[in-house]
């Protein structure tokens, strides 16, 4: 299970970094531009040009006021195909942030995320997080949301955090999220494109919610943010002008992101990112005895899960553990990976063993 005891936030100019620590070890690290087109932001964009795609489909390049034009498909599941021309305006939400030489990806089906719920104005059904294992609680939450659905068409996702919340707080949030969306609509009527209509909250607060069960301290270098954190977090909240220096974050990050990661047992993990997939090899470093290899692989499984989060690894991940790749030896190792990746925000899933004996994620 993914745990953390400390979150460190440091802002420098328009850039900010977030570090998640567990027992002094770096768990996650994120750098982001607070003025950039973050995932979840809603804009009034202006169509720049229409672009042809495969199979006679098409999309649009949209100016949302970011450094690069963003892409929006004309086809979107659950919505009618849009056919617009250059210069027209459209309300869009960032579904994927700009990376490297690619601009952001946009969708028209806006979703507003809260602490306990996600409001989907274009949706039609209620979905409860599969991570809530208490079936009675699932029914209670579903029924409470169902009773408070407006007469208009709308959809809701009940988040995992709702499992520990008072039902009244969940219902209150429904009204809050509806109001946010209504304000977006009002702003869109008078705004001049490109314009930001809604900015997603600082990702620090999402991390606080995600790790609330084990989190004990939050450190920031922004007094305004310090007060906001104290309003939602009951643990230790402190100000530090240079938290990176105090916690040695740069050294930890540099060490953690090497292609070769050393294990306490003496073995090594080699991580290679390719265009098609991420390849991870566990090197026994001479530990060939069955008992030693099993211990090495268990140790490696824990570290690999940490590296997946820390490096934000995505897509296909193929792992070649040490020793035999037979299922009877790998079953326990895959269980460890499953447990360590439980709660991963990116939804990492252990798929099983390939015929070659490699573990696939």
Main beta sheet:
6 strands, mixed
Q: Number of helical segments?
A: 8
The rough form would be described as globular
Output mean pLDDT.
88
Widest sheet: strand order?
16-17-18-19-21-20
Q: Level of helix content?
A: 25-40%
Oligomer: single chain
Structural category is alpha+beta
Distance between the termini: 16 Å
Rounded radius of gyration (Å): 23 Å
Give the number of DSSP strands.
21
Question: What can be said about this structure in brief?
Answer:
It is built from 8 helices and 21 strands. The chain has helices spanning 135-147, 167-190, 203-210, 223-232, 243-247, 249-256, 290-310, 327-341; strands at residues 6-12, 15-22, 25-33, 42-52, 58-63, 70-73, 89-96, 105-107, 112-113, 117-120, 126-128, 155-158, 195-198, 217-220, 236-239, 260-262, 268-273, 278-283, 317-320, 352-353, 359-360.
Structural notes for this entry:
The chain is an alpha+beta fold and 361 residues long. The protein has helices at 135-147, 167-190, 203-210, 223-232, 243-247, 249-256, 290-310, 327-341; strands at 6-12, 15-22, 25-33, 42-52, 58-63, 70-73, 89-96, 105-107, 112-113, 117-120, 126-128, 155-158, 195-198, 217-220, 236-239, 260-262, 268-273, 278-283, 317-320, 352-353, 359-360. The chain has a 6-stranded mixed beta sheet, with helices on one face. Strands 3-2-1-14-15 form a 5-stranded mixed beta sheet, sandwiched between helices. Helix 1 crosses helix 2 and helix 7 runs parallel beside helix 8. It is globular.
């Amino acid at each position: 299970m993914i745990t953390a005891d400390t979150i460190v936030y440091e802002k420098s100019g328009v850039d900010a970094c977030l570090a998640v620590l567990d027992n002094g070890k770096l768990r996650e690290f994120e750098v982001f531009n607070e003025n950039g087109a973050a995932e979840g932001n809603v804009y009034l964009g202006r169509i720049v040009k229409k672009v042809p795609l495969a199979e006679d489909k098409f999309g649009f390049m949209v100016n949302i006021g970011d450094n690069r034009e963003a892409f929006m498909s004309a086809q979107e599941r659950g919505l009618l195909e849009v056919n617009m021309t250059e210069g027209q305006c459209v309300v869009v939400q960032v579904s994927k942030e700009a990376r490297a030489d690619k601009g952001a990806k946009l969708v028209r089906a806006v979703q507003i995320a809260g602490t306990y719920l996600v409001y989907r104005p274009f949706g039609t059904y209620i979905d409860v997080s599969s991570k809530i294992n208490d079936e009675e609680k699932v029914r209670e939450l579903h029924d409470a949301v169902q009773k408070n659905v407006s007469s208009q068409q709308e959809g809701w996702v009940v988040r995992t955090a709702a499992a520990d919340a008072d039902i009244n707080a969940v219902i209150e949030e429904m009204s809050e999220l509806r109001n946010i969306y209504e304000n977006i609509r009002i702003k869109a009527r008078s705004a001049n494109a490109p314009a930001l209509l809604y900015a997603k909250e600082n990702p620090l607060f999402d991390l606080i919610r995600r790790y609330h069960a084990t989190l004990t301290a939050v450190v920031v270098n922004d007094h305004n943010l310090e007060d906001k954190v104290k309003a939602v977090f009951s643990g230790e909240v402190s100000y530090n002008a240079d938290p990176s220096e105090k916690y040695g974050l740069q050294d930890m990050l540099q060490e953690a992101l090497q292609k070769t990661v050393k294990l306490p047992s003496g073995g090594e993990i080699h991580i290679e990112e390719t265009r098609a997939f991420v390849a991870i090899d566990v090197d026994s470093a001479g530990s060939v005895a069955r008992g030693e290899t099993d211990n090495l692989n268990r140790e490696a499984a824990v570290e690999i899960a940490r590296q997946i989060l820390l490096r934000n690894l995505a897509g296909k991940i193929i792992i070649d553990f040490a020793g035999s790749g037979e299922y009877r030896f790998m079953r326990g190792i895959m269980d460890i990976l499953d447990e360590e990746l439980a709660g991963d925000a990116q939804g990492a899933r252990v798929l099983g063993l390939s015929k070659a004996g490699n573990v696939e994620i």
